[in-house]
Structures are given as structure tokens and as C-alpha cells.
Amino acid sequence: MDFDILRRTMIDTQIRTWDVLDPRVLAIVTEVKRELFVPTAYRHLAFADYAMPIAHGEHMWTPKMEARILQELDLREHHRVLEIGTGTGHMAALMARLSGMVHSVEDRADLSQMAEGHLRVQGIHNVQLHVGDGSCGWAGHAPYDAICVTGSLPALPEAFKEQLAVGGRLVVIIGKGPAMRAQRITRTQQDVYETAVLFETEVTPLRHAPVPGRFVF
């Protein structure tokens, strides 16, 4: 299979049509070899508009969603980034190429180990992998200039907002299927946050996500 042709087609027919036009993002999507991050059995579908199953009932985001979120994060070379949900390591690789350091948290050790191998093959060394529960962020290296949560949450724990640097951006998917919304939250001042709804989607829920309290009558 000619992966380079498939990659160009993916960018033109999926990613650009989703309003992803930032040349830096398009360049990184071209450079990072997505086919090397997907399970071997699905490599022929690496560039399909398809949520790729990986292991444990988890899925990779579609290519257009990865690129759109990357654009919304607006990463710069000096940024420190937090990713919750490492998966195969592909999103971490994309973010690493645009930022200074990515801290990626995965609660399944085998997935983290697989991602480590993928990143090593790609020659990416500015990703620090952590195994643990990131359902309320990862305070050890906060504050972050950008936070990306790859699993959905029924509601957003305040800890994520608190771990953002002023000027930082958090992209997260909130809600329960099928009514989930991708949101970008920007910390504009110490105690001021601005929220923008980006699009509707449905992705695998984040494990261990705190459940919002219910009223008791």
C-alpha cells in the first residue's frame, strides 16, 4: 500500500474539510506516520475516517478529530502539555512535534509500554509517559499550557482547570453518549475561564471519571 498517497488523500478529504487549515498542523500530520501507531491488523485502515479499536475496548480518535484538536490547542515550542489517555501514543507524538514537553498519562501499563515503543521508533524524545489514574488531571507537573483529555467525561472536574497555566487551553469532551460535546476552555486570568463548544461527537468514556453528584429529595 502507498501510505503517502493515502495520507495526502486523508488530509485533503477529511482534515481540510473539517476546517483544519493551520499549516503547522498539516505539516505535522504529514510527518508523523500514523500507520506505525495503529494495530497491525488495522494498518490498511490507518487513514480511514474511523475510530480505530486498539485494546481493552479503547479507540484511537479519527484522523480529522486528532488534527482539529491539535489546531484548537494552538501549541508552541515552549509549551508544557498534559495528555490524559496515551493509547497508542499517536496524539502524544503529534503534540510533541509542536511543543516543548508532553506528559502523557495512561492507566493501563501495557498501552503505555506499547506507546513508548511507537514513540521511540519515531525518534520522539520529549514525551514523558506516566502510568496512573489521570481522571482528575496530573498535578505533579502542573501548571500546563495545554491539556488534552482523550476520553469523555460526564462532567469536568475542577482540578483540570486548576492545572492550567494562565493563557492555557484545555480541550475535553463532556457528556454522555450520544450527546457529547468537545469544548475548549481557556484560562484567560487567574480566576477567569472562557468556554467554547467546538463540535458534537461521541468517544469512549475515560475510566475512573468522577460521577457528578445527584440531588437527593
UniProtKB/TrEMBL annotation:
Keyword field: Methyltransferase, Transferase
Any single Gene Ontology cellular-component annotation: cytoplasm
CDD domains per the UniProt record, alphabetical: AdoMet_MTases
GO biological process: methylation
Keyword Methyltransferase listed: yes
GO molecular function: protein-L-isoaspartate (D-aspartate) O-methyltransferase activity
Pfam families, per the entry: PCMT (PF01135)
Family: Belongs to the methyltransferase superfamily. L-isoaspartyl/D-aspartyl protein methyltransferase family.
Name of the featured protein: Protein-L-isoaspartate O-methyltransferase
Species this protein is from: Acidithiobacillus thiooxidans
